[in-house]
Amino acid sequence: MLTAPTAAGKSALALELGREFGLEVVSADAFTVYRGLDIGTAKPTPQDREAVLHHLLDVADVTEAYDVARFVREAEAAILDVLERGRVPLVVGGTTFYLAALLRGLPLTPPADPEVRAEVEAELTARGLDALLADIARTDPAEAARMERNPRRTVRATEVYRRTGRYPGSFGHSRPRFRYAVTAFTRPGPELEGRITARVRDMFAAGWPEEAAWLAARVDPLARPRPTVWQALGYREALAVHHGQLAPEEATGQVAVASRQYAKRQLTSVRSQLGAAPLTVSEARQRLTALLGAQGGP
């Protein structure tokens, strides 16, 4: 299992190792699962996917709500398939919630209630994330900290609490099907920030605004509850550029700032949810090379 914050280079490292060791990549990303979301998700290119076989890319339509339960089911099926063919799977991604579900098992929380979820989504819009987190903190400060300022998790936790009087963390987890060796890495702050800005700028130049317009033609960005695909970082800004409501330079700055904040949350989640201490890029490569050389697990 390989993870790193956005733009740190985890896909490039996975490709390098995949070519060297004949690996197959199982993607753990909440948005590369969607067909058509290519530029804004930094999805591996067709050439990359031809060089190293990838699983769980382009498995859902943008009108679908892809969730962690479906991810675990499909990821474990892909891992089993790879192993049965005598190959080695490498789980790669930055959606820590998905990685934690593979590592620890699925949360045994009840299914979502669309009506309650819609009410909480409306409150998030009207009152803001801090207000919802304050509500959680009044009854369970530890649960509020566990949210790590993630709006989706905060809405889900609030929804479950209002229906059951309990937060998701109290329901426990199912038994994971496989065991994983977790490797995480990052880059020095200034270097990572530079990579983030450069990648966002390249995305806009590659046609991200047009991709966002394509998405808007299929899924209403103003629908409530907020569609899953429109929770992907930067697509709203890209759509604003397409409509002439935001200059590309201004949008690049806004998305880069949001991406840096997201990268910080990812690193926090890696430590708290995966129990991993981020290494340098070279340390991560050495560790994975040693594990793969010893025929380590996925």
UniProtKB/TrEMBL annotation:
Site feature: Interaction with substrate tRNA: 95, 117
- Provide this UniProt record's keywords sorted from A to Z: ATP-binding, Magnesium, Nucleotide-binding, Transferase, tRNA processing
Q: Which InterPro entries match?
A: Dimethylallyltransferase, IPT, P-loop_NTPase
Highest taxon, organism lineage: Bacteria
Answer whether the UniProt record assigns the keyword NAD to this protein. no
Task: Tell me what reaction this enzyme catalyses.
Answer: adenosine(37) in tRNA + dimethylallyl diphosphate = N(6)-dimethylallyladenosine(37) in tRNA + diphosphate
Where is the secretion signal located?
none
Tell me the enzyme class: transferase
Gene3D superfamilies membership: 1.10.20.140, P-loop containing nucleotide triphosphate hydrolases
Q: What is its EC number?
A: 2.5.1.75
Q: Which cofactor does it need?
A: Mg(2+)
Q: Which residues bind ATP?
A: 4-11
Main function: Catalyzes the transfer of a dimethylallyl group onto the adenine at position 37 in tRNAs that read codons beginning with uridine, leading to the formation of N6-(dimethylallyl)adenosine (i(6)A).
- Cross-referenced HAMAP family: IPP_trans
Q: Which family does it belong to?
A: Belongs to the IPP transferase family.
What is the recorded name of this protein? Answer: tRNA dimethylallyltransferase
Q: Which gene encodes it?
A: miaA
